[in-house]
Amino acid sequence: MIIIDYIINLSMLSLMVSTPLVIRSYLNLKPLKQLRFWVSLYAGIVSSLLVSLSFQDQGYSYDIRYAVIILVFAYLGPGAGMIASTFALTARLIVSDNWFPAIVGWLVVMAVFIVIHKFTIHFRPVRRYMIFLCSYIVTYIITVPIVLNIIKDNPLFHLQYLMFVSIGVLIGGLLIESYEKLYRIIKERKRMEQTLEESESKYRLIAENTSDLIMVMDKEHAISYFSPSHEVVLGYKVAELEKIEICKVIHPDDVGKFRETITKIMKNKKSLPVEFRFEHQNGKWIDFESRCMPVMNDGKSIEHIVIISRDISERKKSEEILLQSEKLSIVGELAAGVAHEIRNPLTTIKGFVQLYGKDNGSNEINNLLLSELERIEIITSEMLSLGKPQAIQLNRANLCDLIDHIVEFLSPQANMKNIQFSRSYLGADFFITCEKNQIKQVFLNIFKNAMEAMPKGGHIDIKLQKGIDGECIISVQDEGFGIPEELLPRLGEPFYTLKEKGTGLGLMICHKIIKQHNGTISYHSKLNIGTLVEIKLPLIN
Description:
The chain is an alpha+beta fold and about 550 residues long.
């Protein structure tokens, strides 16, 4: 019967220790203030309950309440232990009449536990409760059967009691340590999940707000991820791109290079750069510079390839402008050298023609020669202007007056070719700061090109209006043959011309003059419909 009573006590101890631990694991409660006090209070109630389940032998009451007290001392210290043991002693005095051995035993055990705690304060809880248990066994053996002479003739009874107290301590400690370990694992897992979530959130924030295109390609060369920037840069929805094979939006000329780069990465397991063109949703091609980086798995084989692409269209344009500037510089130096060599013999020829006319009298042929020589001088002066910057003198001028002057100058030639000029000025005053002769030269070149594009005659519409950014827009529309769209970007390059006897310098000079005046010039053309030239110049108040 005594063994059954001990088993009941152990079962109740296990239940009372595990219940709050299980409840705590399911409920996400905030830590209690003064936790030690509340736990010691609960431990006192548990030990009191174990006292109520005690059994009587020879007028003495026995239970395993000290198993709870040992655990409280080991985990929470002497303060909580004293509270719990006081509850246990009170309950023991209520259920039994033998107060003296209970009080003496309690005082001795408490004194031993307090002393041991001072020496084991830095030990781990498991080691502490084993030391407390051993000290309790030694104290019990010395105090109860020897000093107090209680049931001295039945050592088996004391052995059973100490064994069940030890089992109670071990079961309680095992439950608490299991819960603590599980709690630490769960807490560490939650911390890792939170860290992972924060890291993922940061990377997602970068991926979703960068202007670079980020793609993830798997081993089968299928794209498993498109960054949202594809929608902004290329115009496609991410859902649309996921249904399209990647090579179908890459320029046909670049597909082979792209596939070759991916093959090399798979073979060498090293990141490689590649340039290719992506097709925008509106059909235009955009230049991208990409970095393809392999991502390895634990087996050192490629699991994914991360492709980060950056739009380099503006950089390409800058490189083209730089190349154009270098060409202009070379052409300028070449033109200046040629012009300089021409002017030396030209001066001699002109001088002898003037002397001949002075000695023999001016005639029509002599005047014609002088006129042509002066024209050659003008051309060589323009060629010299390409080679070195000219000190231009800026003055306030009305664009309406400059255009009217050039139209009147070209009217006789236009009438002969059955060409009519129509002017539309959407405003009265269009004043700019400019070098008048240079701006006239620009209009002269543009108008003459328009006339030469209409050998059978037609209309040239000149429109003058104010833009939204304090600028003036001059539009010149002809009805000529038009220019193929792919050739428009090359207009203004040195020696590039579409005319049979052209030099390719006229538009180049126009571009240079407009740029010096902080303006822009652009072209729009359709075959067999005509060409529109738009010049934008800053207005002044």
